[in-house]
Amino acid sequence: MTEITASATATGDTAGPGGATTGSGAARLQARDVTLAYDRRVIAENLAVDIPDRSFTVIVGPNACGKSTLLRALSRLLTPTSGQVVLDGKAIAGYAPKEAARIVGLLPQSSTAPDGITVSDLVSRGRYPHQGLFRQWTSADEQAVEQAMAATEVDALADRQVSELSGGQRQRVWAAMALAQQTPILLLDEPTTFLDIAHQIELLDLFARLHHDGTTVVAVLHELNQAARYATHLIAMKDGRVVAEGAPREIVTAELVEEVFGLACVVIPDPETGTPLVIPRASRD
């Protein structure tokens, strides 16, 4: 089973989407000159990233450029071979697991639920870092789970087994678990996978509201126009390095898209939001 990183902010909670409580305490997350590798295969070297506090940061780039690998390092699932990930001025490796999980939550790219587990039980696992020797399940935990399920519209599925659900339904259940964590930093690895376009927008709108309420959101997205619409801070990666970063309106140009993705395009203002809208050039054939 994929490791569940789940938590709640220790102080300063505020009411978020659907009434759910969200972490409002400041928390700074950085990667300082990290080298990331799987076994001997190096994905990125001397990579430096500083996630702006309370931003909606989106990481984009072509397949296998290191986006998800960077997110795994930021979440403590992958230990850099050199350099370090720093959380609030302290190496994240120096935090106790539950301590780190009360600050940084993760919605992984793919997850496997235990056999026979129901939706409500899986979402409840998002409250794990709250539990301890002298602190067991409370009404606050119950409320957080109910509100997270309502916000992601899976409350009607509460008694269903996760294995019975469609891919899109399962993705929303995992998103509910991430919301129930109530961390001040939430990492999302391709959160819209398996979702139809309507549910993609609904989920991204939900994360945008979390960001508005004070949560630092960091997401890996494949859809560049969605990234440009929702991000307050955009990081463009290629071949394990950061090519450009900043506000989408400032960095998303036809030249950048061609450099990063090899796509000839034009970039125009989105008629709804004014954010950059990438239009691929028509084939000349």
Automatic annotation (TrEMBL):
* GO BP: any one term: iron ion transport
GO CC, sorted alphabetically, is: plasma membrane
The protein's name in its UniProt record: ABC transporter ATP-binding protein
Q: Which organism is it from?
A: Schumannella soli
Output the InterPro entries linked to this UniProt entry: AAA+_ATPase, ABC_transporter-like_ATP-bd, P-loop_NTPase, Siderophore_ABC-ATPase
Gene Ontology MF terms in the entry: ATP binding; ATP hydrolysis activity
Provide the membrane topology annotation: Peripheral membrane protein
> Which parts of the sequence belong to the ABC transporter domain?
29-264
